[in-house]
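Usage

Read records sequentially. Each one opens with the input sequence:
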Amino acid sequence: MAYHLTTASARAFPTHELGNINIYLRNTGISIIFSAVLLRFLYIQFQWRKQTKAEAEAKLDALQARIRPHFLFNSLNTIASLTRIDPPLAESLTEDLSELFRANMQTSARLVAFKDELSLVRQYLNIEQSRLGKRLSINMALSDIPQDALIPPLSIQPLIENAIYHGIEPSEHGGELAITGDFDNNKITLTIKNPMSPDPSASSRPSNHIAIENIRLRMQSCFPERSSLSISSSELEFQTLLKFPYQTSQP
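and closes with the structure output:
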């Protein structure tokens, strides 16, 4: 009886058809295995990119969320000294300081409009101008830079703070802080110049280049291969040169 069933099966499915079925099943199995491996690979790639992006964002947050303690202490001392002799000015400087802290703590935005960054710069300079008085002279010419250009938040203020803290403040007579901007061929160039203190020990305060390296890393992250931050100095002057592309949309 078994013999007759086998013969019937052979008649229903000729040998070459059975071979084709076996080949089909084998190829299907290989395709399923290959697809599973490919999907696993793509999943691992996705998770790796997700983790890399999260780590990069965390690093940017850490780099961005830095306010120098000396600036905070100096600002609070200045405001405290003004509370009795000029309460309205003390109130205004307190508002400026609170805005700087708000911007420093708001790390969700990777890029902000240049006009917003410039507003923070002016608020910071209001505080320093009140503290240093006639020792700080400001020459700002940034009208050529498009107001809608995007830039990482707190990219300019630390450079200006660097110029004041390491150049103008240590000098007995202070000096001029020059901030100029140029826009050409879809490229923005920002130049910051400050005098060098004649006292070598004063001009070599600790952490002179921390802010510069901080901003260089953030610029490279936001504008890969399209930005630069360079410094140069002579016996009389220190210069910071920041270049970045004109961009108006978030990546």
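Summary fields computed downstream for this record:
- The first helix runs from residue 2 to 12.
- The chain has one domain: 58-245.
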